[in-house]
Amino acid sequence: MKGAWRLRVWSVLVVLSTLATICVSIPGFAAAPVEIVWSFWGDPGELPPNYEVIKAFEAAHPDIKIVVQHSPWSSYFDKIQTQMAGQTAPDVMFLNNIPSYASRGVLENLDPYIKESGFDVSGFYPELMRTFMYRGHVYGFPRDNDTTVLYYNKSLFDAAGVKYPDETWRWSNFLEAAKKLTKTDARGRVIQYGVALEFNKYPLFVYQNGGSVVDDPLEPTKFLLNEPKAVEGIQFMADLINVHKVAPSFVDMKQMGDTTQLFLTGRVAMVMTNAARIPTFKDANFAWDVAPLPAGPTGIRANSMGGAGYVMSSTSKHKKEAWEFLKFLCGREGQTIFASTGVAVPAYRSPETAAAFLADKTPAHKNVFLTETGQGRLFPFFSGWAEISTTLVDPTLDRVFIGETSAKAALDEIADDVQKMIDSRR
Question: Would you identify the CATH topology of the domain 34-146+306-349?
């Protein structure tokens, strides 16, 4: 009896094994691919590279399917924060201010994955990689450097008889040109501005004047935005709006449109922004190009060092597959795809990524992005800066930029409170 029982069991196992083999071999019974949710923001012109990356990745990894969660910048972070609170965050996310998220435990520590897979991080700019670390651990990788350049409308420059900007420009040249490029109608209303500014670029004016926001952008001990050089930089920016009236106010821009819209419609002659605008500006019906940012009064050149990048959610249910996608996204393959579209100045330094970025000849002086990256300085990226910025610094600068108060008076008012918040971190 025992022998017969063993024979029956063995027969059943053989049948089950055979059926399993048959099911796997039949396409209709193939295991469904694991779905990974990838979130990102971006204007319409910025989106195509993302889908190129997905196509290339899925071709190489048919067992993984990428599901897109796209939101505009204006609502992206609110949605992500809500999902993080509910532990339903996307598996892979496009984020900035990484330390502020890592400190809350919502991002996956990538050190074990890097070690196990041998993923090469040496190609990334070291300073950029610092912004994706928290307490010595890696939580993500940069997609790009947020290099800022001066875009200019050649047609408007030609019409005003103004020479194109170049590497010799300082603030005085920039201001003189902006005045000549600003036009008013018979009633004195501005119908064309010389320049449109971006609020979050204010550290550039501080750095170009020899000042700093804090003493160390990642491990600060002292708030410096109320020091003389920094104050002068902020005041120069505010004066472009309120004294010289060559730039629209940030309040007006909420109605008029952002720098992209204003430049594309020919309502401003210059904007200071990043490479992500290139695809959109290709649709412009006028000639345009890029130039280095103007140097400060004493010749100091400074640009932004930092940018958004990719991270993994600590609550992901498919971390193995998420890591496979993250490696592809942030490695040579993904970086080269992004670089080839001109959307981003590559954060990964290699001959392939540099060549890919410069392959497209628009704009004519595209190499300016690479040379300006060499002038990069980190903006504040430490854990706690988001709260400091949102509750104290940004509201204070709002008052300065609408002309309600001077930069010195406003920044002196908050200096002690900001310093206390910095001290509380230690």
Answer: D-Maltodextrin-Binding Protein; domain 2 (3.40.190)
